[in-house]
Amino acid sequence: MALTEVQIKKARPFDKRYILTDQNGLYLEVMTTGAKYWRVRYWFNKHERRISIGEYPLVSLKEARIKRDEIRKMIYEGKDPVNFKKIQPTETPRPTFGSVFDEWMEKRIIPVCTQGYAKQVRSRMKTHILPYLRDTSIASITSLDLLNVLRRIEARGTIDIAHRVKQICGQVFQYGIATGVCENDPSFPLRGALKAHKLKHQASIIDPRQVGALMAAIDSYPATIVRCAMKFQALTFVRPGELRMGEWAEINVPQAEWIIPAEKMKMRRPHIVPLSVQAFEILEEIKICTGHGRYIFPSARTPAGNRPMSENGILAALRSMGYEKGVMTGHGFRSTASTLLNANGWNRDVIERQLAHQESNSVRASYNFAEYLPERRKMMQWWADYLDELKAL
Questions:
Q1: What residues have CB less than 8 Å from 360, skipping those under 6 apart?
Q2: What is the reported pLDDT for 343?
Q3: Active-site entry in 65, 166, 239, 244
Q4: How confident is the model at residue 198 (pLDDT cuts 50, 70, 90)?
Q5: How far is CA 283 from the centre of its chain?
Q6: Residue 346 and which of 36, 254, 304, 371 are 20 to 30 A apart at CA?
Q7: Residue 334 designated active-site
Q8: Which residue among 67, 227, 269, 331 is the active-site one?
Q9: By C-alpha distance, which of 359, 225, 242 is closest to 283?
Q10: What class does CATH assign to 97-190?
Q11: 208-392, which class in CATH?
Q12: pLDDT band per the 50, 70, 90 thresholds, residue 365
């Protein structure tokens, strides 16, 4: 009786290997490990012979029958199949972890995430994982294989990186499962296998009086572009990369908004930043210097204004003002705003929406860039007035 795909897929390993017979000498051998191999049993010159023609599912039932018929034809022609390499198994190359990772990057990360995030993911994997697993069949990687690589990272004391890389690997394996190139995610059983790591929050100032002192210190910073950039970031609490890449063309003056396009946002979704009166005053001040160029806060080295300011511009300014590492960063303005807005009773959903944090509901997220906009306008103006009050203390 001929085999069916359903029978083959349901075949489970036992303590001893066994066979499932098809027709005309073709059978499937199920190993104790769960591997399944196609073989053909035939007679040549009154001697019984057996030949392997590949592993299931890399060689499907239909392909196995075609190979079997090729073998039978050779026997009919008086040729022993064992002596002819041309009919030896021609297994389909197994997708490697590296090839699946590259495909995952192209289809799942690059189209929806920022260039900076995609670059960071590729760099981490290239440094920590791909040297050891790139050419390994993704279907053959075990939890122990992955753990051995992750512990190399852990041994260097970079516990946080080890956890982050494990998460990335898990996403690659999940993509492999979805595309049918592997059957399980070996990173899943590793929960708890690595040393625990403490979540590190971006350094920020949350004491109101200290925030006021910071704003006063920013007012005294001599470099105009960087000074205005720090004040604007404090008022808008956007991410440093979004601030640096801000363009004059994105400012909607009639609506008092800064509309950041999706390609510049971390999760590739457009974002509206309502602009307070104070924020507009900063734009008017800086426009004298940079309004002729593309970027609102360009690099001081490019008079034409066609290159954004340095990634370290604000960080270097904070350091020169006496705010050392662990005290305040450019990203810390977001934490400062979040903490103090929550402390002053503003709606948490409104705050989270203005921070452009990821919405767990992807359908809702694609439409909610203007959600709570009236409340956000009020909140942003209140925040600007509050910073002025703190600075006056």
A1: none
A2: 93
A3: 239
A4: low
A5: 34
A6: 254
A7: yes
A8: 331
A9: 225
A10: mainly alpha
A11: mainly alpha
A12: very low
Alpha carbon distance 169, 147 (integer Å):
11
Name the pTM for this structure.
Answer: 0.57
Q: Name which CATH class applies to 5-87.
A: alpha beta
In sequence order, what are the beta bridge partners of 47?
44
Taking the CA of residue 365 as centre, how many other CA atoms within 13 Å lie in the half-sphere pointing to its CB? 12
Are the beta carbons of 235 and 286 closer than 8 angstroms? no
Instruction: State yes or no: is 372 an active-site residue.
Output: no
Tell me the average pLDDT across 14-35: 87
Residue 78, SS3 per DSSP? coil
Tokens for 91, please give them. 């297994």
Nearest to 250 by CA among 308, 302, 312: 308
Single-letter residue type at 336: T
Q: Please confirm, yes or no, whether 266 is among the known catalytic residues.
A: yes
Decide: 239 and 266 in contact? Cβ < 8 Å. Answer: yes
Contacts of 276 (CB under 8 A, 6+ apart): 235, 380, 381, 383, 384, 385
Q: Look up 364 and say whether it is catalytic.
A: no
The values of phi and psi at residue 220, to 5°, are -95, 0
| CA-to-CA separations, 10 to 34, 55, 180, 387, 391, in angstroms, rounded | 11, 16, 16, 66, 71
Catalytic residue list contains 331? yes
Listed in order, the ranges of the chain carrying CATH 3.30.160.390 are 5-87
β-strands 47-56, 36-44: how paired? antiparallel
Show the tokens assigned to 140: 């053959």
Q: Which of 124, 266, 378, 391 is catalytic?
A: 266
Give exposure, 92-103, as e/b (b: 16+ Cβ within 10 Å): eeebbbbbbbbb
Banded model confidence at residue 202, pLDDT cuts 50, 70, 90: low
Residues with Cβ within 8 Å of residue 278, at least 6 apart in sequence: 235, 384, 385, 387, 388
